[in-house]
Each structure stands twice: as C-alpha cells, then as structure tokens.
C-alpha cells in the first residue's frame, strides 16, 4: 500500500473485499485467507504472487521491476504522434481457463511504479483490437495516457464511432472504461459499457440478463435510428465500464428541451381528447 500510495479502503474497493477486513488484518497482524489473497492479486496484477504470499524475491513481477526510469510510458493527454509509445511494458495475465462470466484482461501496460497506463483504442484501430486485444506487440503500438482521477484499476480508452449513443456521446469522442471482471455481479443495469465482441467494439447502455436469459441486452440512446441488440457470453471478449468521457463537441440542450416540449404538448392533447369523449 505504501508503494502504490493506497490505504486499506482503496484495497477493499479495488479487490472487492469485506469492509474493514484489511484494517483488521493490519491492526491484529492477522493473516489473509486464500480467497482474499486471490482477489488482491487479481486487483494488482503487477505484484509478484510469490513475494506476496511467501515474502521471497522482489515485490514486482520481473517485467515491471527491470524497467529503467526512461521507460516510464505514462503520458499527458495530447493526441499527437508523440503519444505513440514503443516503450509500453506489457504484462501477460494468466491465460488459464476462467469462468465464462468472469475474465481477466490478457494484456495490460504499466509504468515503472507498477501503475496501469490508459491505452487508447482509436476508431481506426478498432478492427485490429478485435484480433489483437491479447497480443503484446499490438497493444504496444497503441498510444498511452495518464488521466486525472483514473487510478487504482485497469483502464482503457476507446473512441466512439457513429451516432448510436447521441446525444449522450458524440461521434469521435473518447470514453475511458474500467475493466469489468465479474460480468454477472458487476455489470449494472442502464449504465454505459464498452463491450468488445464478435460484433465489434460496441459502446452501449446495458441491461444485465445473464442470470435470467444468459445474455446482455445492449441499448442505444439514439433508439429511433439504432436498434437494440443482445449478446451471449460466448460472443463477448471484454467488458469495460465507462467512467469518463472526453468530447470535442458540446451538445445543444435545446434539442432535448424541444423533445420534452413536444412530449408535454402531446400528453395535453391526449388529455383533452379523453375529456371530450367523457
């Protein structure tokens, strides 16, 4: 926690632990059970598990520890060729068989402090990402950024294509998503997610029906022009919960006001028709 600048509450939230568990363990010098250890190591995948459990070796995994200071790939937000990083340090996560509804990202990038970089997947790279989301070399070709208040998790930035989420999200804007590991538990209804699937990289509002119907129901905010769709778990590669968006276009609120005004007028008209018939 000292190395990463965390407190017990940060670890509790990041690893999905019971409230107070870490604080009690520190206060009482108590041990951690295997389930807690597994959750912490999943939350902080740059930590060497042998060091964490046995105290042997180095704290960070070798491919993080061996980086020089010049290899720090954390960058400021600027969309230029300078952000193209050939020095991304990629970590391959355990690719053992995972439960269908709970997966870990195959590749993440970190800086010398072990903190995840935010990798950008622009529209022009979306097709390549579908094939290369688990490929170290492909991920290393993508730009990386450091963003304010985006930390203590695994994040990825995607560029929105099209008008299916208008006016919430505009064509060409960027969304920052946090990795969702447990799809059944952590995908919440009516929140926006980036769903990497056989159908493409989709940015949609999601209804979680995995328990009930074994699928996710993906909704567009612009429902007049873009139909909703469903995805089965076997079609899904990754899910990222949208935590932030960056836009170069400010939507005109009068469009929404006009829609509300039309709706109010239509309701009043219906009321008048009902009264006239009565």
TrEMBL record:
Q: Which UniProt keywords apply?
A: DNA-binding, Hydrolase, Protease, Transcription, Transcription regulation
Record InterPro entries: LexA/Signal_pep-like_sf, Pept_S26A_signal_pept_1_Ser-AS, Peptidase_S24_S26A/B/C
Does this entry carry the keyword Hydrolase?
yes
In this record, what's one Pfam family?
Peptidase_S24
Q: What PROSITE patterns is this protein classified in?
A: SPASE_I_1
Q: Which GO terms describe its biological process?
A: proteolysis
Report a single Gene Ontology molecular function: DNA binding
Record's GO cellular component terms: membrane
Domain of life from the UniProt record: Bacteria
Q: Which regions form coiled coils?
A: none
Q: Which residues form the Peptidase S24/S26A/S26B/S26C domain?
A: 151-237
Classification via PANTHER family: FELS-1 PROPHAGE TRANSCRIPTIONAL REGULATOR, PTHR40661
UniProt protein name = Peptidase S24-like protein
Name the species this protein comes from. Answer: Flavobacterium aquicola
For this protein's source organism, the top of the classification is: Bacteria, Pseudomonadati, Bacteroidota, Flavobacteriia, Flavobacteriales
């Amino acid at each position: 926690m000292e190395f990463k600048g965390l407190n017990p509450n940060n670890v509790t939230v990041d690893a999905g632990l019971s409230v107070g568990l870490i604080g009690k363990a520190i206060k009482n010098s108590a041990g951690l059970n295997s389930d807690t250890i597994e959750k912490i190591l999943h939350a902080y995948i740059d930590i060497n598990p042998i060091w964490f459990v046995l105290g042997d070796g180095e704290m960070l995994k070798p491919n993080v520890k061996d980086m020089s200071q010049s290899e720090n790939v954390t960058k400021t937000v600027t969309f230029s060729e300078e952000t193209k990083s050939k020095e991304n340090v990629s970590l391959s996560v355990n690719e053992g068989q995972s439960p269908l509804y709970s997966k870990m990202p195959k590749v993440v990038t970190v800086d010398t402090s072990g903190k995840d970089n935010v990798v950008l997947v622009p529209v022009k790279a979306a097709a390549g990402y579908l094939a290369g989301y688990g490929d170290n070399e492909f991920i290393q070709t993508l730009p990386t950024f450091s963003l304010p208040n985006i930390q203590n998790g695994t994040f990825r930035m995607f560029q929105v294509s099209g008008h299916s989420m208008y006016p919430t999200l505009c064509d060409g804007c960027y969304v920052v998503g946090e990795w969702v590991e447990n799809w059944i538990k952590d995908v919440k209804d009516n929140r926006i997610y980036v769903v990497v699937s056989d159908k493409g990289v989709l940015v949609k509002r999601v209804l979680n029906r995995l328990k009930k119907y074994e699928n996710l129901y993906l909704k567009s905010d612009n429902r007049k022009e873009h139909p909703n769709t469903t995805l089965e778990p076997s079609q899904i590669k990754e899910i990222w919960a949208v935590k932030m968006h960056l836009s170069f276009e400010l939507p005109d609120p009068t469009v929404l006001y006009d829609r509300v005004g039309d709706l109010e007028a239509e309701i009043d008209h219906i009321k008048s028709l009902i009264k006239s018939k009565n």
